[in-house]
Amino acid sequence: MRLKTSLLKEPKHILFFLNYIKHKELVSCVGWTTADELYSCSDDHQIMRWNLLTSETTRVVKLPDDTYPIDLHWLPRSIGGKKQAHAESFVLTSSDGKFHLISKLGRVEKSVEAHCGAVLAGRWNSDGTALATVGEDGQVKIWSKSGMLRSTLAQQGTPVYSVAWGPDSEKVLYTSGKQLIIKPLQPNVKVLQWNAHDGLILKTDWNSVNDLILSAGEDCKYKVWDSYGHLLYSSQPHEYPITSIAWSGDGGLFAVGSFHTLRLCDKSGWSYALEKPNTGSIFNIAWSVDGTQLAGACGNGHVIFAHVVEQRWEWKNFEITLIKRRTMQVHNVINDAVDLLEFRDRVIKASLNYGHLVVSTSLQCYVFSTNNWNTPLIFDLKEGTVTLILQAERHFLLVDGGGLYLYSYEGRLLSSPKFPGMRTDILNTQTVSLSNDTLAVKDKADEKVIYIFDAVSGKPLGDGKPLTHKTDIVEIALDQKGLTNERKIAFIDKNRDLYITSVKRFGKEQKIVKIGTMVQTLAWNDTSNLLCGIQDARFTVWYYPNTVYVDKDLLAKTLYEKDASDFSKNPQIVHFVGNQITIRKADGSLIHLNISPYPVILHEYVSSSKWEDAVRLCRFVKDPTMWACLAAMAVANKDMATAEIAYAAIGEIDKVQYINSIKDLPSKESRMAHILLFSGNTQEAETLLLQAGLIYQAIQVNIDLYNWNRALELAVKHKTHVDTVLAYRQKFLEDFGKKETNKRFLECAEGVSIPWN
């Protein structure tokens, strides 16, 4: 990936002296109204409009000679839940202590005396209902949309150079000398501040999608932080101070500006491309609405434009590159065949997976099959700017500012799920997951909640209630294969613990089980339900995560582990396709790992009920991990004959004996109940026995598990075997030299003779 930059031969922002001497004035700020229209402000007191479609530049308004603009920010397009086609007004801060609310046509609607000294930055919150300004006087102020002062949030002893809103618009990030400070709008809430740079911090930005913070300073470094103030990345010192930094809208990229320098970086900090344009210092960077291009305000009077090109997508033997804004190149690495895909409009987003390439342009969506690149399926988009594409084997998801849309690969709209307070503008691959039958979305309003939908109907799954965890959730992922009623979701919470649970629940207590700790990143396999993750400096593959519901003691034996210390800090799993895992290190380099192909083959045999082939495979491989997986799979599928062979192979003799005892049980219901007991599903086993009329066995199950109260409750309710329960209880107490203290048992024991021989 790289930037394709363009500069005019002569700058548009110039001052004429005595009608013939030209002087280039620095451009202080830029801002996009649409993906093809930009406004720029300069020390020449002019606001210019740039139309990228017609290459025309026109003057919008000439400001008074004593007004020197410093910062510009357009009112967000989403206001009060209503989406506008383009921004209609912007705030302009200036050196005279004022900020100005200016319409798109250049009319100054209002000028407000805001600070003593220059107003150094102004930013609208995400829905355009509040404005934050900072100035040379060290004050941070919050204003209403109409320019009325709401509060003075902070008073610093030094000038505040930059400000940014938190993703929920309830916190404000600002600079104070070498420190960064996050202050909530609510009073009496803890303020977070930390030393961020060795020099003055000039710029900061906070992305609402990935919740990460950028900072840039006079120490010639840029840094990436999480919202708790933990350092994720620090650049090497540059030659000159970093004068501008800005996130792209979707949080996948950011741009860095310095003297004669423009750099494109990944969200984790490493650099994709470095350009050295003749611009002077770049004082301000703004990304277009669709994230395909950016503009920079230059110290020599120029406005620099840069398009993101040469993005790459890989899947199996196909490599696709965006070589121009409207052209993609497809390379089949097996036969070296090359195809060119031409589009009418510029490409905004693309995804390659499951044998299909899905491309969204500014107006349309194209669906290509990897078997035929010549005849794509094309349909018009409701909303122009797609922010996310997710694929499953049978369908794909488009996310835009208007909602979530699930389409089949034939272009048919399947559903458009919704939930209260849904904000689609902040969704990313960590907060949304898609499988063949299920869509999971993490709630932003309450980060402990995951909404789960049927992919085809768009309705909530199970009993309609969302999945709720005890701690904030960071990342979610649905498994990709298997039956709908066995669908599992894995998620990492903010403590970095990995949990797994079933997505389908009907009034039952949700069983969320922890299977990993200190997990940084995770991914499900595309063809089998294998799960991989990096936990505590170890790369781990859970060959059969469902083991935790079948035989928890067996889980540790179904893992593959490898030392991950050479992956460096904060590695991310990119793909888990077939038996190959692709991991991106913190420096941007890719590592390809191969795991054994046998677990995937074992999954295929089991899903086809080829138990004899599965046993034969395990005997051939002679790996205890494979036998452990087969044992868990066999119990999950109620094939106790195979389970007996597998448990015997790994030396679990006690479980072999228990399975043998199950075989000798007289009724089918009894055998099924004891298989459920084997898996730890006590409640389901008891329910099954009661439905079959096997009251005594249900009571005996609770006695064996020392569930004395439940055993007595069943005996009294069904008026049978009360004396049996009392006898077992009495024997139990005698063995431990205890006396009965349970009132219920004392009441029932009155008048009941207990013949215990």
Q: How would you explain this protein's 3D organization?
A:
It is a single chain. The chain has 12 helices and 59 strands. The longest helix has 14 residues, at about 720-735. The protein is elongated. Among the domains are: about 1-5 and about 20-310, Methylamine Dehydrogenase, Chain H (7 Propeller); about 670-755, no CATH class. The strands form 16 sheets. Strands 1-32-31-30 form a 4-stranded antiparallel beta sheet, with no helix packed on it. A 4-stranded antiparallel beta sheet has the order 4-5-6-7, with no helix packed on it. A hairpin with a 5-residue loop joins strand 26 (about 245) and strand 27 (about 255-260). Helix 9 runs antiparallel to helix 10 (about 710-720). With about 750 residues, it is an alpha+beta fold. InterPro entries: Beta-prop_IFT80_2nd, TPR_IFT80_172_dom, WD40/YVTN_repeat-like_dom_sf, WD40_repeat_dom_sf, WD40_rpt. Pfam families: Beta-prop_IFT80_2nd, TPR_IFT80_172, WD40.
